[in-house]
């Protein structure tokens, strides 16, 4: 309870940077996370999911990283809302707040980052065209590759979830670099129906930031050896359902990316969630 009080009163403000990556996710994979009385938005057997990887340098819980795995879109009039399959946060306080207040499937995570500078490869005609219209970074002679290894901490055991390879040019860190236009946007979300908060909840993230389209990050799952160890741990703890959902959330991360947006100088305002009576079963 002390951790919840430390967050203070809403709205809660988060500042930092993020990558918002959209994927085509198989509807059958997404349905494992969506309440039965909610309608998943799908077409040709797929829905729109992906992930939101954020690094906050100022927040009610201080400095921490967050990975939100988005299973898909759910229809709730008058709009579609994102549904989180799994949330990993590098803060015990943020984890507790997400569970109790927002009914999110939050887990404490460990984020390990490694940056490597590699020579810039010759650009293709497509890359040159994207650079011309401002959808790629400038012509720096070398490019920074950041590998983010995300592990879930459970029962004092670290379980590998995924590795995310981000491409970032040197000019990105230069204030003179083009970081895209300043925009304001709202990301509506549905959550809840968990053991920590059984209500169906709706909330939105009001974001102000500089945004630009970038090449999608490359995501890889845990190695076969890690997977075997984790499955063994799950069997021993009789927590098979939790392991199954974790594996399904990894499948979401490994699905086909279609668009990646980079948020810089981000300010995200989050109001307290409101209770929703039920999802709409009707389509628009």
How are the SSEs placed, and which strands pair?
Blueprint: H1 2-6, E1 12-26, H2 27-30, E2 46-58, E3 64-76, E4 79-89, H3 92-102, E5 106-119, H4 125-132, E6 142-154, E7 157-169, E8 182-192, E9 200-214, E10 218-220, H5 224-237, H6 240-253, E11 256-270, E12 274-275
Parallel strand pairs: 4-5, 4-8
Antiparallel strand pairs: 1-2, 1-11, 2-3, 3-4, 5-6, 6-7, 7-10, 8-9, 9-11, 9-12
Walk me through the structure.
The chain has 284 residues and is α+β, with helices and mostly antiparallel strands. Helices cover 20% and strands 49% of the residues. The chain has 6 helices and 12 strands. The protein has helices at 2-6, 27-30, 92-102, 125-132, 224-237, 240-253, and strands spanning 12-26, 46-58, 64-76, 79-89, 106-119, 142-154, 157-169, 182-192, 200-214, 218-220, 256-270, 274-275. The protein has a 7-stranded mixed β-barrel. α3 links the parallel β4 and β5 (106-119). The radius of gyration is 19 Å and the shape is globular. The N and C termini lie far apart (41 Å).
């Amino acid at each position: 309870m002390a951790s919840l009080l430390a967050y203070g009163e809403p709205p809660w403000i988060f500042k930092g940077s993020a990558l918002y990556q959209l994927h085509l996710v198989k509807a059958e994979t997404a349905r494992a996370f969506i309440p039965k009385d909610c309608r998943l938005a799908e077409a040709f057997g797929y829905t729109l999911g992906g992930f939101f990887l954020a690094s906050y340098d100022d927040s009610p819980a201080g400095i921490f990283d967050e990975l939100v795995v988005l299973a898909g879109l759910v229809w709730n009039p008058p709009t579609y809302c994102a549904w989180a399959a799994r949330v990993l946060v590098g803060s015990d306080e943020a984890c507790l707040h997400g569970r109790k207040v927002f009914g999110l499937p939050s887990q404490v995570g460990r984020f390990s980052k490694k940056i490597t500078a590699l020579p810039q490869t010759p650009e293709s005609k497509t890359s040159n065209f994207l650079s011309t219209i401002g959808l790629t970074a400038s012509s720096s002679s070398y490019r920074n590759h950041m590998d983010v290894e995300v592990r879930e901490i459970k029962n004092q055991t670290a379980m590998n979830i995924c590795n995310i390879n981000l491409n970032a040019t040197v000019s990105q860190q230069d204030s003179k670099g083009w970081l895209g236009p300043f925009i304001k946007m709202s990301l509506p979300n549905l959550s809840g129906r968990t053991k920590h908060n059984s209500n169906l909840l709706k909330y939105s993230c009001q974001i102000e930031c500089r945004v630009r389209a970038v090449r999608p990050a490359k995501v890889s799952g845990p190695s076969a050896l890690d997977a075997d160890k984790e499955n063994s741990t799950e069997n021993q703890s009789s927590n098979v359902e939790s392991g199954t959902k974790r594996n399904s959330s990894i499948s979401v991360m490994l699905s086909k990316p279609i668009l990646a947006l980079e948020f810089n100088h981000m300010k995200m305002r989050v109001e307290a969630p409101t209770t929703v009576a039920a999802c709409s079963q009707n389509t628009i």
